[in-house]
Amino acid sequence: MKKILTMGLAVASAMTIMACGKAPEQKPAAPAAGAAPAAAAPAAGLPLVGVTVYKYDDNFMSFVRRAIEGAAGGKAELSMQDSQNDQGKQNGQIDALIAKGAKVLAINLVDPQAASTIVSKAAAAKIPVVFFNKEPMADVLKACEKCWYVGTSSPEAGVMQGKLIADSWKAHPEWDKNKDGKIQFVLLKGEPGHPDAEARTKFAIEELNKDGVQTEQLELQTGMWDTAKANNLMDAWLAKHGDKIEYVIANNDGMALGAINALQGKGYFKDPKKFMPVVGVDAIPDALAKIKEGVMVGSVLNDAKNQGLATLQLAVNAANGKDPVDGTTWKLDDKKAVRVPYVNINKDNLKVAEDAYK
After folding, report:
1. 7-30+39-152+303-341: which CATH number, 3.40.50.2300, 2.40.50.140, 3.40.50.300, 3.40.50.261?
2. How many CB atoms neighbour CB 251 within 10 A?
3. Are 300 and 342 in contact (CB under 8 A)?
4. Cα–Cα distances in Å, from 88 out to 55, 97, 354?
5. Which fold is adopted by the domain 155-301?
6. Of 148, 159, 189, 316, whose Cβ has the fewest other Cβ atoms within 10 Å?
7. DSSP 3-state of 122
8. How far apart, in whole angstroms, are the C-alpha atoms of residue 241 and residue 262?
9. pLDDT digits (tens, 9 = 90+) for 267-316
10. Coil, helix or strand at residue 72
């Protein structure tokens, strides 16, 4: 993704010192004669929450979006927007949401570097912002009085995935095909510059090494979180390295599933002697099915349900002029962020992840 490095952004960054205040109280419109009670609900005082998602067809974000929609019932009117992985489009959507009268913005950034621009737009309209899933720079949140973040601790997923890999490797010495005591791995990285992609990549390998497992990187390329791109990369790596690959590490389940598709196309998993360990992050239902089948080693539950719930709860509180975590079980850390914890998932505790999607 292209970084936004223009002078306009520099000016926008300076404006983040402005407080993103609460929108002026709007008087509810009178219901039309004969209108059904259900139709009158938004006019009866439910705040309008403007939501943008960086792209709807991202596997994980589809579940976060569903959770936001489910949590909004009776609490907020939503205006949901698909930014289609285009920061310019997202900026325009935010302008339109402000013009529409949104009392709070819930923003899943396309580019984290654009946060200061969005904060400036919200500050000018005196409305608060809840960023979710893609974390802005800490100084952006700190400078804005009414801005918060809902997501995870990016290093935590990498650390936990590294532990998952180490435990599985030690339990299966037969996976060391050349018996050199090292994991020869390929790694499918998410979007370059994305905090989760960078942290998961770094800390997964660091944790493996801390756990006494030696590693040798055969390939590391970006699959941009995308199943089809990961499939193509895995095909190319198999053609280049073949059975020298001993482990496939993916920054998310979408890419892990793409790798599995490519492996199955080359006859892997049909014969127990032709097994390739694959791990991901998110523990989405399609990945859970592969874990249950014994095709995928495991994943790290990125709790979409609670991320969506927390995002909606903070947004509604902010829209109503309350403390963002008022009446919730969430706590803000020193970076004004709610951190939803990760959980390692394998065949032994699948139910934990399955329950997260109920």
Report:
1. 3.40.50.2300
2. 31
3. yes
4. 13, 14, 36
5. Rossmann fold (3.40.50)
6. 159
7. helix
8. 14
9. 999 987 899 999 999 999 999 999 999 999 999 999 999 999 999 999 99
10. coil
